[in-house]
Design a protein that fits this description.
It is found in: Secreted. The chain is an alpha/beta fold. It is built from 15 helices and twelve strands.
């Protein structure tokens, strides 16, 4: 009933107040957020909107917490760029999602070409994850409110707040699309042992943060989603700490899986939380009114799916503006994937997100 009343109150407010993280919280979620990266933090208008907690009460660092950025040589750690993003989030009272501890990509050469044996590589994984998560221990926190008043005024300095911890993508993209394990240097050397080692090391470093396995193409049911479910079930049976499944949701306009909501619920039925971690919905350029209208409907579908699954705790867009989207540089001829355009103007997709939380 409290959630329903909150949504009704927000629906009665002027449009300017009905912003994305406010609506997410009113819908019973922890956050709505955006990814970011260090190079764009010199763009003052971009940073101003990124720090607008009415839209974004969570941030994910895109690159500067990855292995090549944090342990470029064995045993030598650097956190300078990651700290910039962490400090930015802290200054705004935003959640900070750690991304990521172990991934097959963006690895320094000493890891990929080290020819380490099983025991040594597991020790390296353990040390990397423990050191990285320890450095940011207690920094993945958010200020959140017990009433709508501070959300409306956007002035939390004189109200009582609660503190909650957020999450780490501990293991990123461990699967092939057919549900088999990716042949990374970690899997080739240790089998699946590196996954449990990474999760245990992260838990030891920060028992209060939520530990996730994160992957793409697990939005709908299928072989890859089954592989993820089987892995999580096995980890839980072994007593390995695992709190959540990250569903990246790099999607295509007009092609949102019809089984998205059911698949989120299937994951939740494993006894973990789920999150939409890297949402964007790309189109073949140029953008047209028809494509933008379909994109609005697609964003609404994704948000509504998260809203409908109680264990879906929040949604992060993979940067909020087309100006800094990764899509054009990766998918030739495609783009316009984000809710704001390259001039930082809201697109119809923004209204789709609003509709997803409120309808």
């Amino acid at each position: 009933m409290k959630q329903f009343i909150s949504l009704v109150v927000l629906a009665m407010l002027p449009t300017g107040y009905c912003q994305l993280s406010r609506l997410a919280i009113a819908a019973g979620k922890r956050y709505f957020g955006s990814a970011t990266d260090n190079p764009e933090l010199s763009d003052s208008p971009y940073v101003a909107q990124l720090g607008n907690t009415a839209d974004f009460n969570q941030i994910t660092e895109g690159n500067s917490m990855k292995w090549d950025a944090t342990e470029p040589s064995r045993g030598t750690f650097t956190f300078a760029n990651g700290d910039v993003v962490a400090n930015l989030a802290r200054s705004k009272g935003q959640l900070l999602r750690g991304h990521n501890c172990v991934w097959h990509s963006q690895l320094p050469g000493w890891v990929t070409a080290g020819n380490f044996n099983n025991a040594t590589l597991l020790s390296i994984v353990q040390n990397h994850c423990n050191t990285l998560v320890s450095h940011y221990r207690g920094q993945m926190c958010q200020l959140y409110f017990t009433s709508l008043e501070p959300m409306i005024t956007n002035s939390p300095s004189d109200v009582t707040v609660h503190v909650t911890t957020d999450s780490w993508d501990v293991v990123n993209e461990p699967f092939n699309d057919d549900g088999t394990f990716r042949q990374s240097v970690f899997f080739q050397t240790t089998g699946t042992a590196y996954i449990a080692t990474a999760l245990r090391a992260a838990h030891d470093a920060d028992p209060n943060t939520k530990l996730y396995i994160n992957d793409f193409n697990i939005e709908g049911t299928g072989a890859k989603s089954t592989g993820m479910a089987n892995l999580v079930r096995s980890l839980k049976d072994q007593g390995v700490p695992i709190d959540g499944i990250g569903v990246q949701a790099h999607l295509i306009v007009g092609a949102v899986p019809s089984t998205l909501r059911q698949n989120l619920q299937n994951f939740a039925n494993l006894g973990v939380e789920v999150a939409i971690t890297e949402l964007d919905i790309r189109m073949t350029l140029p953008a047209t009114q028809a494509l933008l209208a379909q994109q609005q409907r697609d964003y609404q579908t994704v948000i509504a799916a998260c809203k409908a699954v109680s264990a879906c705790v929040g949604v992060t867009v993979w940067d909020y503006t087309d100006k800094y989207s990764w899509v054009p540089g990766t998918f030739s001829g495609q783009g316009a994937a984000c809710p704001w355009d390259a001039n930082l103007a809201k697109k119809p997709a923004y209204q789709g997100i609003v509709n997803g939380w409120t309808q």
